[in-house]
Amino acid sequence: MTDQLSVEALREATSRVLDAVVRHGGDGPDLGFDYFWTIIDPRILDDRASLEPEPTVAQVSELLEHLRDPSFGEGDHLPFLGTELRWLAELLSALAAHLEQGRWSGLAPR
Fold this sequence. Notes:
mainly alpha, two-stranded antiparallel sheet, 3 helices, 2 strands
């Protein structure tokens, strides 16, 4: 049995972490890259026979363009909302990799 997923708990945890990033001077970080590797979960592919994850390249600027679209998150079609969540997760993953590699040198907490 798995724990029940709470969207509100995810929202609160995400806010806490992003608030901490901002306190460390990261309110508009330059990641230093536009393209990065990501893995597509085979459960979302049309080919149900595929059990292997599919590495692909994501683009920060393209994902940011989606996020800035006024209609982002306003859809009423659950599969598309899932896609938007994946785009957001991929951007957060890129930011996490940037932070984990210590590329935020010179920034002091506010």
